[in-house]
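Below is just one:
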Amino acid sequence: MPREHPRGTSDLIHPEKITGERCAGKLARTVREGAVGKGPAPRAPRRRPTSLRRWRDHGLVKEFHDRLRRKVREQAGRDPEPSAGVIDSQSVKADAVVGADSRGFDGGKLINGRKRHVVVDTLGLLLAVMVTSADIGDRAAAQVLLARVATAHHLLALVWADGGYTGSLVEYSLAVLAVVLAIVKRSDDMRGFVVLPKRGIVERFFAHLMRSRRLVRDFERSTGSAEAMVYWSMTTLMTRRLARPRPSRA
């Protein structure tokens, strides 16, 4: 007689049998620990698409993330849709699996890899992310990213940015997207480390990403998977915020 699976036949992993709860748990573990898992169990199908790929291709990762963001904003007493945000980029080293078509060299940071361009709201919650090769300029990527954000969030009227986003992008944002791009510059008389107004919001966001082992480097073959990992890292943060007990009002 064939030997039974030690966990029972119900644990054999088929795409149509994976529940949403198991997908969420698997993705959270992957982002947090940086591991893909222990591999298929005995007698499991040899080929099985990962839950991330299925959720990514159907847009479920971003949809789940956006719903949670609205819940977190409502819990904080804010409008579900933001009216202001902060834009910035982060260059990270790419793993060997990243192809030459989606990686580049950032001469300013001296990093060979990819760049994450993000827009966050004033609570530090992610509005949009776009992953490119590291040699793509901030202003060129911001023109595409801001257009996406302005289309998805009609109430967005103000975005803060650093000095790397000056130039024609400011006029383009106001004339085409109806978004004011406010440049927060560092004055010449500043010495040492100084937290600039609104700049700490997005820096705190990047610090959270670095707490996810999967995001310390870029391990994804496609930029779509890299963006999905960023969304899911913020999803885990927002679920903890929503599950945190709120103090009772006297």
Notes: The radius of gyration is 20 Å. The mean pLDDT is 82.
